[in-house]
């Protein structure tokens, strides 16, 4: 039976992995302490980051392409489900950093946690670490673990949160590096994105589906919306939404050369529900209305 195991507290997750609970709201979990177990789907009610090895049982599915051989980071936001159902047993390996959203509520990290988009990346968009990067990550985990073992004082929470934030900031840098080192792969995605848009606007999809959304484009490219957005921004300097709007204006300019078509017809062909929305966007991007563009020398 394909059941989902729910972890509502850090304590439950620690017990599941035979780890001591040093703090009810945050933990560094050593997965090798867990008993061998069957593959299952797991849901976490807290932020979870796995530092996994290459062959790691529960997370090996969909992770066939690696840039590095030394480790992989996978990020989960509260409520996400991960894993695969199966009859075989495996020995968990690696380390998990877990922290409850209530632990960071009202702090600077709590206010900016949504800016770390990688918590909503798909599993196959994991962060692949070099040996040097892995050492930095392990050092961050070590500092958090030190504070968890230290007698609680007035500094404890702030130091733990500061080290979690430091860790996440390093991960942001390492993802930027990954976007660069996978440049050929990224250019392939950009080319496919451009091709998808061209095909979209020269079909009947705009009239039937409306303007292409960032989510639709990401799904067509088998990427999560946030990973796709960050990748396109890193590759082009603009957001996917801006890229789509640029394509709309490019196509619109060509169609405006056809004097037999009205502005309204062109707007509907492009996927706009209302012609005035097309006129507004065109004016914002070009400084001219569609009619003015037609009459300019």
Descriptive keywords:
single chain, 297 residues, alpha+beta, three-stranded mixed beta sheet, sequence-specific DNA binding, Tscrpt_reg_AraC-type_HTH
- Major β-sheet, in short? 5 strands, antiparallel
Stretches where pLDDT is under 50 for at least 5 consecutive residues are: 55-69
The top-level CATH class of the largest domain is Mainly Beta
Whole-number tally of structural domains: 2
Intertermini distance: 70 Å
Please state the second-level CATH architecture of the largest domain.
Sandwich
Q: How would you state the average pLDDT, rounded?
A: 88
**Backbone structural class:** alpha+beta
| Widest beta sheet: strand line-up | 2-9-5-6-10
What is the CATH topology of the largest domain? Jelly Rolls
Rg calculated over all Cα atoms: 24 Å
What is the overall shape? elongated
Helix content: 40-55%
Helical segment count: 13
Q: Can you count the beta strands?
A: 10
Quaternary: single chain
H/E element order: EHEEEEEEEEHHEHHHHHHHHHH
Strand content: 5-15%
Question: What is the strand and helix layout of this fold?
Answer:
Blueprint: E1 4-7, H1 10-16, E2 26-30, E3 37-38, E4 41-44, E5 47-52, E6 72-76, E7 81-83, E8 89-90, E9 95-99, H2 101-104, H3 108-112, E10 127-128, H4 131-149, H5 156-181, H6 183-201, H7 205-209, H8 214-220, H9 225-236, H10 240-256, H11 263-270, H12 275-286, H13 290-295
Parallel strand pairs: 1-4
Antiparallel strand pairs: 2-9, 3-8, 4-7, 5-6, 5-9, 6-10
Helix pairs in contact: 4-5, 10-11, 11-12
Domain HTH araC/xylS-type: 195-296
GO molecular function: DNA-binding transcription factor activity; sequence-specific DNA binding
Keywords: DNA-binding, Transcription, Transcription regulation
